[in-house]
Amino acid sequence: MNYFVIGWLLFLFIKTYSAPGDMIKAWKAPGENCTGLAWDGKNLWVVDQKSRTLFKLNQDGQVIKKFSAPSYWPVGLTFDGKTLWLVDERGGIPKIDDFYQGYIYQIDTATGNIIKSQELPFVQPVGIAFDGTYFWTIDDKEKKLISFSGEDGTAFKEYVYPAPGCLGIAYGNKYLWIGNHLRNEIYMVDPSNGKVLKILPTPGEYIRDLAYFNNALWVLDSQTDSVYLLQIDDGTKWVRTNPRKVQLSFIEELYNIGPGNATNVSFNIAVPENDVHQEVASGVSFNPADYKILKDEWGQQVAQYTVQTIPPGKSASFEMNLSATLYDVRYYIDPELVKKAGNIPADIKKIFLTDDEKFKIKDPVIQNAVKEAVGNETNPYLKALKIYYYIIDKMTYERSGGWNPAPTVLSRGMGSCSEYSFVFIAMSRAAGIPARFAGSVAKRSEESAMDDIFHRWVEIYLPGYGWVPLDPSGGDNPWPADQARYFGFVSNRFLVTTHTGGKSKYLQFNYNGFINYSHESPALIYEQMYGDWDVVK
Known about the structure:
It is elongated and about 95 Å long. Helix content is 15%, strand content 46%. β19 (216-221) and β20 (226-231) form a beta hairpin. The longest helix is centred in the last third of the chain and has 15 residues, at 380-394. Strands 21, 23, 24, 27, 31, 34 and 37 form a 7-stranded antiparallel β-sheet that branches. The chain folds into 3 domains: 3-236, 6 Propeller (Neuraminidase), CATH 2.120.10; 240-327 and 513-534, Immunoglobulin-like (Sandwich), CATH 2.60.40; 330-500, Roll (C8orf32 fold). By secondary structure, it is mainly β. α6 crosses α7. It is built from 8 helices and 37 strands.
């Protein structure tokens, strides 16, 4: 199989469908098992594990010089401004559980001679990067991201690494860049706290190492035996992929067991609209047909059907039917663009910074939490990001069935998706960031399935981007990459029906729908709402 041809076909494909992570150029790697990559400001350096050879290459992939590598099992390269550094995964004798002690080697780029070698105080290092002061590596045994001294190996910072499968690391533009060969992803990581800020796709199936180059990344891939140059940020604000065509029936039903009558019954269903995440086909229908379209105080459209009386032993229902195309949508947010875009529109602030009974933004619990989370940060995106990670650190997901106010939920430390949303909206609005709900019907498993649980998350308004989705309950994950995945992302599993900022006169604090009614006493009333998904052939 000609992997080089595959790489160039992939190059043409990606350039046709532009997105962050686009390939700028690609060429064949100089060895059969290349594992390390570094940029010295003018040329690339590549180390081949199989032949134990160091190659110096120009930007077109032509070999200028080569030396024998100074180690048995090289797994990463970096450049400190003057010399080359190589990390070896098996530099020492086997230690506990058959893991090897790591070694680093400082190499003269003019001669290939070793200037110094240093045993590392941790095992199983995979990759090395230099941030201008200290080195960074990934300890695959302990699942850690470690900052250390090149003088004696002293560790200064340790974080949980982004996710299992991390392999290869670089530093540039104030951030760490880490590859993951199991998930085919590249992570932009904040070196001050280990948080993942951005996720990019990889061009191949087995990323081995990275090197930063003028707002781009050189990427070494051992599956295709190729080196790729990827554009980090081309100005794209969001990308949507994986279109899914669906048909959905959303049903509200009320059954009166009796003995009294149910009276003044109002069925209310939120009407979905087109947006970045979904294209709702024309011809959304409702049954029965004698309904009316209303709009609540948040601008949410609602279809309403009313029944004056439902006798004992009888039922009534209201149904919405539609076809739609749903997408996975990923936002790529640049803090500088948010900063430069200017102020938040006055009408957005007027509506979506208000308080409500589920938020209680003036409560000391919320006010103190915002101070602790945000500190002196002024950038709306970075403030929202700090609130997001604060909630992840303080709470765990539990679908307990209650919808308590934000201060109660935060103090308790656990909550449902709705309760996570209450807390995030409360803290965001207290910090001056407009926020609202997004409510959806969820496609949970098979192509034909029913959902009577639903899902709710948050959208915040960011200058230069508009409404950006985030799911704080989805961020309840142990790995930093999986926490970051839910900020600025919506899955094609969800059909969004509802955008609202708080209590609605038609939906109350519900989303998707709400049934309002009275009854003669005594009467036992049973109500249900569910979404029924069908296969689209």
